[in-house]
Amino acid sequence: MEDPAVLRRTVLRGTAAVTALSYARVLGANERVRLGVIGCGERGRGDMNVFLKTGTVDVTALADVYADQIDRAKQAAPNAKSFKDHRALLETKELDAVLIATPDHWHAQTAIDALNAGKDVYVEKPLTLRIEEGPPIVKAARINNRICQVGMQQRSGKHYIQAKKEYMDTGKLGKITLVRTWWHGNFYHLRKAPPSLQQQPSNLDWARFLGPLKWREYDPQQYFNWRAYLDFGGGMITDLFTHWVDVAHMFLGQDIPTSAVAAGGVYHYRDGRTAPDTINIAIEYPGPFTATFEATLAPGVSGAALEFCGTEGRLWISRSKYEFFEPRRFGPPPAARRSAGGDDPAAAFSRMTPAEIRAAIAAYDAPQRPVASVEAMSNLDQDHVENFLKCVKSRKLPNGDVLVGHRSAQASHLGTMSYVQKQRINFDPIREEVMRG
Predict the structure, then answer these.
(1) What is the mean predicted confidence (pLDDT) over 74-87?
(2) Closest CA to 296 of 189, 162, 421
(3) Is the pTM of this model over 0.85?
(4) Which of 105, 174, 229, 335 is the most exposed place for a label (fewest CB within 10 A)?
(5) Domain 158-328+365-376+409-434 of CATH type 3.10.20.90
(6) How many CA atoms are closer than 13 Å to the CA of 198, on its beta-carbon side?
């Protein structure tokens, strides 16, 4: 006889899928998608406008804990219904998909509620606030047969896809041992609450904003600049590194780390924030390779990119372009090596004058010119939204599928855990669990 527990899980999976599908329309290729927006802040409205620009979406519902945000969103979606509670929004029948752009601490519950209600979901990154939240969201998407795209837009960027095909899929970089990433001076983590929020507005539901978090009195900074507080998000690690480590996962085909170490702190902005303003992390993969991340909010440095370092060259890529550099060979110039009777650098150096050695060192240290440079070809946000909408109709997995989103958030969470616990975090890549002891 079949194991009763297995039978029960099978029945539950089938029941959940039927329940979700009973709420969902099967969209034709030319039908318009009815979208609900949960979280109508600046990022939510920006994403909503990207959806509207496709010309194939009607925004039918808006939800936010602060009525002023809904009013701003209604300027672009005047006919949308308004809700303070996302659960009420999900009960509306005129809804095919939802955009979730809440603070991170609401992502998991809101996504699961939407998936269980039979809605396809586009959720901003990181998918989760805590590492353990990921598997239940993946499960909800799978058993309800819903499309769930996480907002890691590099996955759909045309120049990212081209760079991967040209340099990674061909093995042109040789063996990759290091992926360097950095994101300095991101102003969003330094925002100051405006005068209008210094006292709690009567139409802002602070208790609902806190949701699952422990109670604290209204704080305009924690509401307006929640990214600076570890109760609401993972600071620059989950907000920024998640994008870059996802590119590493995409390019190298490995997305489960084996360990993480971190160092950093609040070194400059003594303004009550709990997320570090300066951070360095290193994530190891079984490749073997290491992905690093460095970021600071302190003035004096800016910029964001990542670099794949291989034995046959390196690939530098950002949201604006990618560049390929040939490998540097430290040693005397080829003519000096040939005169020494071969390619042995030591033998060649022995025949060089001090001036020639200094010249060789200077040449090695000089700025390197790329041998190839390609500019971005499209708008990443638009590409990613269009991929989601296409998959809503085709029912194929999207570029930033929920499992992809979980794995990239998971890597970032290991870095945050190392920072908070001040120790190396070892991770079992088979069981996908933190190793204790």
Answers:
(1) 98
(2) 189
(3) yes
(4) 335
(5) no
(6) 3
